[in-house]
Amino acid sequence: MNAFFRWTLILAATWLAGCTTYVQTQVTAFSDWSGNDTTRTYAFARKDEQRNSIEQTTYETLVAMELSKYNFRQVPEASANYQVAIAYSVRGDTMTVRQPVFYDPWMYGGPWGGPWGGPWGGWGPGWGGYGPWGPTGYVDQTYPVYIHALQIRMTDRQTGREAYKVTAVNSTGDPSLYQAMPYLVRSALADFPLGNGTVRTVTLPMGKDGMLNETASSTSSNERTVPPPSPAPAQKTVE
User: Fold this and answer.
1) pLDDT grade for 217, boundaries at 50, 70 and 90
2) Pairing verdict, β 82-102 and 135-156
3) Distance between CA 171 and CA 92 in Å, rounded?
4) Smallest Cα–Cα separation from 26: which of 151, 195, 142?
5) What average pLDDT score do residues 214-225 get?
């Protein structure tokens, strides 16, 4: 198992451990960016299988919204300085999480005797290394995990030179790429342009409806908490 896949499983384990209120995405960027505000015009580049795809259009809209925050303007291809290509995928897997089983003295003999057990019935077995409220054992639970990925690639339209490529990957228990895409897009383009070879984690807050929250604050240089856009269908791979 490679290190990148292990990382996604670690994030998934964190997600499965409790009710999370955020989504963490690993972002990797490669950059040879030299553009300025006056040259930030672009058109989306599509492969044949993407040309008439409504799903593709939906995701491009999210990317366009995010790029507009950095003074990018979408124009006809003939007048664009850059071509922007996006690729995305979702794949399912399973992971096993070991969870503790806790001893409850009130259910299995109380500490004060009477109807709950002997004079110290509840306390005796509970003190065996964990205390009266500690785990008495562990059970393995298997969960489905879905790994979502997005790559955004910018190239100079005239020369074909790759100027910027960023990949964002996260994992949740939801198979919907549509639901994951706002987090992927916002994370991928946060603080554009990142330096060449940047690898970091971006944390986005989740609202009660599972959509992105609008409030957040920044953290360290390799870990970022940022706000969102709007939502963005299901198991699909386009490369």
Assistant:
1) very low
2) antiparallel
3) 9
4) 151
5) 46
Provide CB contacts within 8 A for 221, sequence distance 6+.
200
What SS3 class is residue 120? coil
What pLDDT is stored for residue 8 in this prediction? 46
Q: What span, in angstroms and rounded, lies between the C-alpha atoms of 105 and 130?
A: 13
Residue 132 burial (10 A CB sphere; 0-12, 13-18, 19+): middle
E strand or H helix at 185, and its extent?
A: helix 177-189
8 A C-beta contact, residue 55 and residue 233:
yes
pLDDT band at 218 (very low <50, low <70, confident <90, very high): very low
- Structural domains present in the chain: 3-17+26-97+141-238 (3.30.160), 102-137 (no CATH)
Any idea which of 3-12, 86-95, 156-165 has the lowest mean pLDDT? Answer: 3-12
How far apart, in Å, are the Cα atoms of 174 and each of 22, 170, 181, 193? Answer: 14, 11, 12, 30
Token look-up 């360290």 returns 220
Cα(103)–Cα(136) distance, integer angstroms: 6
Q: What is the pLDDT of residues 116-132, one digit of tens each?
A: 444 544 444 444 444 55
